[in-house]
Every structure is written in structure tokens, then in C-alpha cells.
Specification:
Elements (H helix, E strand, L loop, with lengths): L7 E8 L3 E2 L15 E3 L3 E8 L6 E4 L6 H11 L4 E4 L2 H15 L10 E3 H8 L7 H9 L8 H10 L2 H25 L9 H4 L15 E8 L5 E7 L4 E5 L1 H22 L12 H8 L13
Parallel strand pairs: 1-6, 6-7
Antiparallel strand pairs: 1-4, 2-3, 4-5, 8-9, 9-10
Helix pairs in contact: 4-6, 5-6
Amino acid sequence: MKKPKINRLLYDLEVSPNVGLFWQASRKQWIPYENILLERSIICICYKWEGQKTVHSLEWDNGCDKKLLEEFMEVALKADEMIAHNGDKFDLKWFNTRCLYHGLQPPPTFKTVDTLVIAKRRFLFNSNRLDYLGQLLFGAGKIKTEFSMWKDILIDNCPKAMAKMVRYCKQDVRLLERVWKALQPYHVPKTHVGTLNGGEKWMCPFTGSTNVRISSHYCTAAGTPRHTMFSRDAGAYYTINDKSLRDYQAWKREIKKRNDALHGYPEGRDRAGETRDYTERKNRGLLKRRTPRKVD
């Protein structure tokens, strides 16, 4: 069976600060936008496809990020989901802003997964920063950098500083994928991988696998039956409705029927020659136990 596929794009971008005029350095100093001499822009974007080893990079052209945006747009349009840490409030808004600035075609509404949102919603970490999560979960965080690297790129156009920036950004993408894999079982999927590849709704929404089992049953406050399934491949739980449960049970019966036919077992009987009904009742403990006769 062909492994189900979903195109998940993990990405990160690094940006430059504004260059402007100000009277003094202070946290409380207000600087009006009229003082901006050089508008901020995107220095580089690094990305990789989930499950692949190569991390790609795109860099600005002497301070202009228009070509970088056009190239990344072509990549992003191929993705089923885009994953970033704080991507919804930072990376994606930056990308949209720069596309608007250059008069590029507006990007579509991408389906995004924000690992920062998952961390805040499902856990209680001491910090939700990517560097902390990497150190906590894997013992390795982000590459340490200094603000001088940004100054060397912005003012001196230093190739060594740019190479270091790209290396720093690529490490962030690799770390992002590890954090995403750790958090994924706690995340409600935004894309059902099974149906995306033409499968059934009872299949694992994380991987599209059929290696699943029924875990439990419950009823909603509205009286709607729901059934919890467990995916052995993803190591995660998910919920299906009555129709999907019936489809799953029908699939299981069909698989059992094929296996019995393959091994030459008579239809309607198991390996011991007992009828299906008898075996099912025995497994469920519905058979009455015979009371042994008292021997005088």
C-alpha cells in the first residue's frame, strides 16, 4: 500500500530592523515613522518539507527582498499546511506586508499550523520560546547570535555574516520540525491525511494509516454518539462518528474474510472450526457457564 502523503512546509524567516533618526537611546523613547530612513525587510527565508533532509534557503538581493518573496510564493503554493513558530502573528504577516509593499499578487489564505499556539494552548511550559522547547525536550536549542550579525549584514553587506545568518535560520527550521513532531499528537489535525489521499474518514487523520483500533465510546451533550480511535502509527487519539465507525467495522470484516479465504478457512468459521457467532459470544463473555455436576 502506498504511504499517504501530505505536503507540510516548515519555514522560518529572518528580518532586518528599520534604519532611522532618533535623539537618544531609550526604551521609553518614542520614534515617529517620519524618522525612518530605510524600511525593514526580509533578509532570508529558510524552509524544508516534512520528512526530507534538505533545508533550502532564499536570500535578499543587496537589501531587496522582492525576488525572495516571489520564489517563496511558488514554494508555499505547493503546501497543504505551513508550519512555523509564531508564524500566524509574525512570519506570515511579515510575508504579506512585504508582498503588498512590492505590489506582488496577494497570496492565498494558507492553512497554517503555529507550534507556539499549540504550546500555549495545550501545555504549561516555563517558556514557549522555540529555544527553550528545544533545550527542554532535546537538550539542544537555537544557535547563539549577537545583534552585530544584523549590523554587519545591513550596513557592511558582509558575506560571512550572511552565511552565519542562513546557518542560524536553517537550524531554527530543523529544531522547528523536532518540536512539531513532539507536539503533534496533542494537536487536533487541520488536514485529514486519510481523506486527502482518497481514504476513509475512520483512517488516522495524522498519517492516513489503517493501523488503528477502537479505544472508547461516548455521547455528546446533544446526544450524538462519538467514538474515540487510537492510531498506533501516530501514537495519538482522534474521534469519529457513527457512520465512520460502521465503515471501519465493515472494513475489518472484509479484511478478516479475505484472510480466512487466503488460509482456506470455511466461510463463517474460525481457525478452530467454531462458528463466528459462537466465537464472538465467547470473546464477549456472553456464553453461560455450565455448572459441573456434583459427583457422589
